[in-house]
Amino acid sequence: MSEPINVVVTGAAGQIAYSLLYQLAAGSVFGPNQPINLRLLDIPVMMTVLDGVIMELEDLALPLLREITPTADPNVAFKNVAAAFLVGSMPRKEGMERKDLLAANAEIFKVQGKALDQHARKDVKVLVVGNPANTNAWICSHHAPSIPKENFTAMTRLDQNRAQAALAARLNVSVDKVKNVIIWGNHSSTQYPDAAHATVNVQGSTKPVPSVVNDDNWLNITFVEKIQKRGTAVISARKMSSAMSAAKAAGDHMRDWWIGTKPGEWVSMGVLSDGSYGIPRDIVFSFPVAIENGQYKIVQGLQINDFARSKLSITSKELEEERTEANNVLQNK
Ligand code: NAD
Ligand code: LMR
């Protein structure tokens, strides 16, 4: 059994955290031999709600869960953390786009970036879930200059899981038979869910998804729009944004970053662009990544046709606009 690591979850009294905390305590993210100390950050008015969450965590009676620290102070929450789930922020309501949350949430990620810079381990792995996730991750990393920029990531794993599930349903196979679907760009309605490089295992043989689906109209329009609009569809039905599936995706993202991906497989993560695939630098853009020894690398050499190129341009342009807007919001505070 390893020494416990410190893991912070922000927005710990909220919806997503309620499902995420169980996964962390049960060992399904950091593995069955990794005990954890949980740091639970929320705002002062939520401290009594957090007390109830802590009672429930205790009542899980799970041996990997060691110390639990509830706090409203980022300086306490981020002390020596090895992993950070930045969930805490306002979710969107019906009729809003995720970028409409920038004004409300940008400051949170500035403050937490500074706290990470001062208190976290320099090898901390940061996953930003709070929306607009890509630009919030960018804000956070810019306020934490002593931590490598590649340690800041944004969650597009929910979009990947949605895309994988939609392809599996269309092909009438179980979801594990579909691999290597890609989410490019922003976790927003401009994202490009790309099945061009995805494979499906049919009766023991691996085939390209496009040739098995054999319907470009469905793949380029129906499928793309379904994934782009899935968050909106959940909000419209539930009157609250997705939480159970978001928590599962956050666990998947961190687990793969911590433990690695299988040879020949990749996952999508929002990471600081290094210019790969002609994407502008200095935006947090979702790319396919392969992970080994806790380090991800953007998968290189995938063919990008004219259709895909036009989609990548739209979503990267939106991220550049969000970066400008974030700078404006933070300067006017
Ligand atoms: P929620 O409202 O249920 O919970 C948010 C929690 O954050 C609340 O307890 C709130 O008090 C807390 N909070 C607010 N400001 C804080 C601060 N400064 N420090 C610490 N905690 C703070 O919302 P939720 O459903 O858990 O969603 C959280 C965020 O995740 C939203 O921004 C939502 O849009 C986003 N989200 C992202 C994805 C994704 O795929 N990237 C998916 C689903 C939801
Ligand atoms: C989602 O994709 O479900 C979340 O980002 C919540 C939202 O605002 O859509």
From TrEMBL:
It comes from the Eukaryota. SUPFAM superfamilies: LDH C-terminal domain-like, NAD(P)-binding Rossmann-fold domains. It catalyses: (S)-malate + NAD(+) = oxaloacetate + NADH + H(+). One of its GO terms (molecular function) is L-malate dehydrogenase (NAD+) activity. Signal peptide: none annotated. This is Malate dehydrogenase. GO terms for biological process: malate metabolic process; tricarboxylic acid cycle. Residues 6-152 form the Lactate/malate dehydrogenase N-terminal domain. The active site is at H187 (proton acceptor). NAD(+) binds at D42, N105, V129, G130, N131. Its EC number is 1.1.1.37. CDD domains: MDH_cytoplasmic_cytosolic (cd01336). Belongs to the LDH/MDH superfamily. MDH type 2 family. Substrate binds at R92, R98, N131, R162. Residues 156-326 form the Lactate/malate dehydrogenase C-terminal domain.
